[in-house]
Amino acid sequence: MPSPTQKRTDKQFGFDYRIVEYEKVHNTTDEEFNQLVAAVDPKPGQIILAGMDGYGSVTKWLLKKNMKEKTQPEIYVLDDSSVQLKRSEDNIPTIDQKHRIQADIRETPFKNGTFDTVVIKMGVHEIPKEEQLKLFLEMNRILKPEGKLVIWELALDKETQNVFRDVIRMKDKLAGFDKLVQNRYFPRHDDLTRLFKKGGFIDVEDYYEFYPRLSTLVRKDELVSKEHKQLENKNGTLTKEEEVQLKQLGKERAKLLTEYARKRVPVELRKKMNYKDFGDDIQFSPKKIIMLGYKR
Q1: Other C-beta atoms within 10 Å of 98: how many?
Q2: Separation in Å, CA 75 to CA 13, 40, 47, 60, 240
Q3: Architecture of domain 22-295
Q4: pLDDT above 90 covers what percent of the chain?
């Protein structure tokens, strides 16, 4: 097993190795998902794209709303990772395989005006800053006239943006997610408003804002998910000894992350960020928002 600070030379790390339950690490509640579904407002017969939906958590909630309807909306699940899409087969088994699309959200294979609604949860920040406008322009292209784009995303400000970025970058470095360290840009609220408008959307609305509590300790499994996946790929299953080693390594890396967060979050911002120090765990609450806009 590598040490918790060992430098990695491998090149390929992203969501093929970040195998976690994002609802757990992001402390996502049913109320937040209910608000997202209300913003999307899926109706029978509509064609909806759940962009960057990985293992299908958004799609699962959209389908719940229409469980009593005879006709479901037609939902497509798009993600850049074949591994994540494979996970979606268990999470949303009723989705036709033809509706699971592996593609870059910035260059989708869909025709102009295909969708009534596009929804993207926590995906914008996975794209480099200079490329984020391409996402909004592409979503505008594939939406029908007066179609709706719904975004669930971080909505930081000038004071909190760099602090949050640095803590998450440290988490990704410890986990070996080199690609995420290089590519991510965590947007401010004003960034999102600008992207909607430059992307050709009107009637842009802040639909719902919330402040989930994030924890350094709860990331312990994520911090070794790359090693876990590599061992699975190599051996099929993990031995008890390997599981114990991974558990210990996750705790060691979580401790390093906690120590870093304790040093990095300035005293003057701790009240604003709802910072709490529990010794082995640092928790704080970044602002997130559900926004929507309509194709011009």
Answers
A1: 7
A2: 28, 12, 6, 10, 40
A3: 3-Layer(aba) Sandwich (3.40)
A4: 73
